[in-house]
Amino acid sequence: MRRNIPIFRASGRLLILVVLLAGLLSAINAQSFTYQGFLRQNGTPADGNFNLTFRLYDSATGGSLLGTVSLTNVPVANGLFTVELNFGAVWTGADRWLEIQVGTTTLAPRVKINPTPYALRANTAGSANPTGSAGGDLSGNYPNPMVARLQGRSVASTAPSTGQVLKWDGSAWAPSNEIWSQIGTNIFYNAGNVGIGTNSPTARLHLEFDSSDTNATLRLHEPNTADSARLEFTNNNTARKWQMRGFISGTATNDRLSFWHQGGQGEIMALRGDGRVAIRVLEITGADLAEKFPTTEKVEPGMVV
Questions:
Q1: CATH says 2-113 is which class?
Q2: Does the structure show a pLDDT above 90 at 62?
Q3: Which of 64, 72, 173, 175 is found 20 to 30 A from 96 (Cα to Cα)?
Q4: Which helix (H) or strand (E) element contains residue 288?
Q5: Is the peptide bond preceding residue 109 cis, with omega within 30 degrees of 0?
Q6: What is the DSSP letter of 289?
Q7: Nearest-angstrom CA–CA distance, 81 and 49
């Protein structure tokens, strides 16, 4: 049985939202239950290990202490924690209040636990199971109804296969294959083209976007300020490869867009941020280009020789 407990705030800017799950108990002495909570510290979900103390009283203030459970190094991940509590044979049907302490901070007021959430079910109370026709999103009869709908929308009767997920197909929730496959930490898709910005991609990866100087279609970002962003070209013939490297330095003069040959040749050509071009070897071949021309005349920018 599930019960939502209100939010409480105490000094030290600790905030806790708790959910109480009262288990069905098979014997009067086995009165443990699962307690789930959500802990905020300074307004954000807490992370780490915390010392938690739970005290059960018979009154909202003062009263008699019926039991204490102290837990150390309770793991809290993204604000969530789960603990098992057992105060012994203290559930008589009378009102009970739970006081929670996080570290040295005691939260107030106490949380009232009404008789219904901690009601016990004896082994002999088999007739207490629901009977008759199921309703709402369930179909069939108790004690074994089936889920027929989710949020009022039909669930298909088709049995799922391994790896399939439940998806809405427009008329019902039905098993469907995931688009992406996963091996280890890698995800992949081999069935066709992938489009970003288009629903009719014409290449394995098709990017379509009305870009601008400040909003590019594709951006390669290198977080290391002393290194280049790289675009690589390879095939299965050899280990050699080409790379286009973009380096942004502290000054435009040292910015470079380079063509690198990763086969021992290194940088072949570079375009610098100041407009200059650096080429390792410039080779011009062909009879028309190799003809001599006078060198006594002054060569001006824009002349064709």
A1: mainly beta
A2: yes
A3: 72
A4: helix 287-290
A5: yes
A6: H
A7: 10
